[in-house]
Specification:
Length: about 100
């Protein structure tokens, strides 16, 4: 598994966007997600699933993620998370399009 090298952030707090911050987690804690969303009741579980799937595809362990959602679509969530992971130094080359 890939370890996070440094904290990083991507996205904005504008409408229809999501701000994602990633940071190294404590050893053996796995993926910890803190999610704040305007549409938590309707789409909270779908947002969590999109984030979990994207992180799993990248093979990252022990990661803290803070996501502040303002109604972002799944493609935006994935893009912001991949950008934050790339800035953190953990993105796999085959994931970059």
């Amino acid at each position: 598994m890939i370890q996070l090298l440094r904290p990083a952030q991507a996205g904005t707090l504008e409408s229809n966007d999501i701000m994602i911050t990633v940071a190294p987690g404590k050893a053996a804690t796995g993926i910890v997600l803190e999610l704040d969303s305007l549409v938590m009741d309707q789409y909270g579980e779908a947002i969590r699933q999109t984030i979990a799937e994207t992180v799993a595809q990248q093979g990252v362990d022990d990661l803290y993620i803070k996501a502040i959602d303002r109604g972002a679509l799944d493609c935006t969530i994935r893009a912001r998370l991949l950008a934050a992971l790339a800035r953190a130094g953990v993105i796999r080359q085959e994931a970059v399009v």
